[in-house]
From TrEMBL:
Gene3D superfamilies named among the record's database cross-references: 1.10.287.70, 3.40.50.2300, Periplasmic binding protein-like II
Membrane topology type: Multi-pass membrane protein
Its job: Glutamate-gated receptor that probably acts as a non-selective cation channel. May be involved in light-signal transduction and calcium homeostasis via the regulation of calcium influx into cells.
UniProt xrefs under PANTHER family: OS06G0188250 PROTEIN, OS09G0428600 PROTEIN
The protein's assembly and partners: May form heteromers.
Span of domain Ionotropic glutamate receptor C-terminal: 351-625
Principal cellular location given in the protein's record: membrane
Record's protein name: Ionotropic glutamate receptor C-terminal domain-containing protein
Domain of life: Eukaryota
């Protein structure tokens, strides 16, 4: 309101009005050419805030702002900036400037009942400190919460005391970046020395002090440019009936020239490059800070050109980035390093109760500590809980939950899987996690996730080994007909070679016994390609060529068949159909508590023939030491476990 009055006076008298603290975006709508801001519009920081929101994938954010023009001015720009990164504002928390602690506490309790856990605070330091003190008191500075403060608080960081700083542990803040320079260090020394001379101990200065100094310097440079210009006022248009001094102002003769000189002034001041664009300072570089303990840590920077960057020198920067990898290590509220989800199911202090079956066997699916007490909180392990935890981790919001053991005093499951599901129907559990099969009658009462293991019911039966283990197994690769045929061809080929060679080849001459022996030896030696007798005639060579090819095929086929007989087990199931079990009145085993019991009973098996098992060891005992011819029927996932963790049974 003060700025509005001054801007109207300056516009009427054509006197430049310079402000280094009026940051409300509402002032930009006045369109006064005589109003210059030696500061930045609050709306210039909303892009930096939206970049942080986008970097961590938050989809909602609640602004908490003071109920005046300073607080309300930035909200439309913040809403637009968040909408550009696919985030929205589900609620606006407005706190009056003179709000009591009870009013602040009541509004914060209202925020805890909502889903969003990302809060953007835009107010002055005094009110902001009270908000954070109340937030810490009611537990809103714990794990899962995200707090981001605008430069309305961070620019006045020197005003905060140690107690207020401690209540803001884990908060992220946006602040104008002031480059370090020797000029700034020299000014700090002069500043403190001047105030010490006046017996003022607290001589800290902030960004507003730097802007005020640079604005004064810019005005002096502009006046020097004008030289001896007439700075008088033309009072000819002043009404003689003016009742106040404010109405008796004239029109400045040097105002238009002075405003032109000011807007064209460029120099490097204490706050950095100083120059006016559209009546205010150029777009700044923002520091992103993280409140840690009793101090702060700079974790990154943001610029309108490059987005989030690690260093303000912009080396090795390629284009605009909103990657959280460009930010340093952040300590979040609750003293954790894991980024909050930013969203939680409001449970009004109630955490979801997840039931877990107590299993003594097949612990790879669900495993609980051995000393688990009935209906007590547990930290389960196993494949099913690993899948559940991975899904919860991948969700864009947090769901507080605890696991409870569904067991009895004997460290066994307190009923069947159907009983466990009934606990959800009765409201004792909000959900259950475990190796629970999806079947029709269960889906009438509860909802299941998509299956992540193969479903189905299978039988595990003893096997019959069809392998030949007698001493004459080497005769099995060939049939008797093939053995006789092969032998006949060996004799025939020997006779043909003798007929073609004995008259012209000395190797096949001699006594009759030599003729017979040499012919048969030559024929049989071709089986291992060890024949040494020469073959002279071309017809004999052709016969030998064809015969060697036939022998090669015969020997290779024989070798492959024999190797298969000796190495591959020919296992045959003793039972191939469940109805065969009914006819033979075999004993049948099933997993204790499983829905398979209902299937077996539905098939009209004799109850005296039913056996239960609860672990791999009990299953092995049924097959080896239990009733004869036990057949086990159970869920396919347990069958996979059996094949992976046990030896084949006979």
């Amino acid at each position: 309101m003060q700025a509005n009055i001054m801007i109207n006076l300056g516009n009427k008298s054509q006197v430049p009005i310079i402000s280094f603290s009026a940051t409300s975006p509402f002032l930009s709508s006045l369109r006064s050419q005589y109003f210059i801001r030696a500061t930045h519009d609050d709306s210039s920081q909303v892009k930096a805030i939206s970049a942080i929101v986008q970097a961590f994938g938050w989809r909602e954010a609640v602004p908490i702002y003071v109920e005046n023009e300073f607080g309300e001015g930035v909200i439309p720009y913040l809403s637009d900036a968040l909408e550009e990164v696919n985030a929205r504002i589900p609620y606006r928390s407005v706190i009056p400037l003179g709000a009591t602690n009870e009013e602040i506490r009541r509004e914060l309790y209202n925020l805890t009942s909502m889903q969003c856990r990302v809060f953007i605070v835009h107010m002055d330091m005094d009110l902001g400190s009270r908000v954070f003190n109340m937030a810490k008191e009611i537990g809103m500075m714990g794990e899962g919460y995200v707090w981001i403060i605008t430069d309305g608080m961070t620019n006045l960081w020197s005003m905060i005391d140690r107690f207020d700083m401690d209540s803001m542990h884990g908060v992220l803040g946006i602040r104008i970046y002031v480059p370090k320079s020797e000029k700034v260090n020299t000014f700090k020394v002069r500043w403190k020395r001047k105030f010490l001379q006046d017996n003022i101990v607290n001589a800290e200065f902030d960004i507003f002090g730097l802007w005020a100094y640079d604005a004064t310097f810019a005005l002096a440079m502009a006046v020097e440019k004008l030289g001896t210009t007439n700075f008088s006022f033309d009072a000819s248009n002043v009404s003689k009936s003016a009742r106040t001094d404010l109405e008796s102002f004239g029109v400045s003769q040097a105002g238009p020239k002075l405003i032109h000189a000011l807007t064209s002034t460029r120099f490097k001041g204490l706050s950095g490059e100083f120059g006016f664009i559209n009546g205010q300072l150029e777009s700044p570089v923002f520091q992103i800070i993280n409140v840690n303990g009793n101090g702060e840590k700079v974790i990154g920077f943001w610029t309108s050109k490059y987005g989030l960057v690690k260093r303000p020198d912009f080396t090795n920067v390629m284009g605009y980035s909103t990657s959280k990898a460009n930010l340093g290590t952040i300590i979040w509220p609750g003293d954790t390093h894991s980024p909050p989800k930013g969203w939680e199911i409001p449970t009004q202090g109630k955490r979801l109760k997840i039931g877990v079956p107590v299993k003594t066997g097949f612990s790879e699916f669900v495993k609980l500590p051995p000393d688990t007490h009935p209906n007590s909180k547990v930290i389960p392990m196993g494949y099913c809980t690993d899948v559940f935890n991975a899904v919860m981790e991948a969700m864009p919001y947090a769901v507080p939950h605890d696991f409870y053991a569904f067991g009895n005093a004997d460290h066994e499951m307190a009923g069947t899987y159907n009983d466990l599901i009934d606990q959800v129907v009765y409201g004792n559990y909000d959900a259950v996690v475990g190796d629970i099969s999806i079947i029709v009658n269960r889906s009438f009462y509860i909802d299941f996730t998509l299956p992540f293991t193969e479903s189905g019911v299978v039988m595990v039966v003893p096997i019959r080994d069809g392998s030949n283990k007698n001493a004459w197994v080497f005769l099995k690769p060939l049939t008797w007909d093939l053995w006789v045929t092969s032998g006949g061809f060996f004799v025939f080929i020997g006779f043909v070679i003798w007929v073609l060679e004995h008259r012209i080849n000395e190797d096949f001459r001699g006594p009759p016994s030599h003729h017979v022996g040499t012919s048969f030896w030559f024929s049989f030696s071709t089986m291992v390609f060890a024949h040494r007798e020469r073959v002279v005639s071309n017809p004999a060579r052709f016969v030998v060529l064809i015969w060697c090819f036939v022998v090669l095929i015969l020997t290779q086929s024989y070798t492959a068949s024999l190797a298969s007989l000796l190495t591959i087990q020919r296992l045959q199931p003793t039972v191939t159909d469940v109805y065969e079990l009914l006819r033979r009145k075999e004993s049948v085993g099933y997993h204790k508590g499983s829905f398979v019991k209902e299937i077996v009973q539905g098939l009209k098996f004799d109850p005296s023939k039913l056996r239960t098992f609860n672990s791999v060891e009990e299953l092995d005992e049924l097959f080896t030491n239990g009733s004869a011819n036990v057949i086990c029927i159970y869920h396919r996932s347990l069958l996979v476990y059996w094949y992976m963790h046990s030896q084949p049974f006979n």
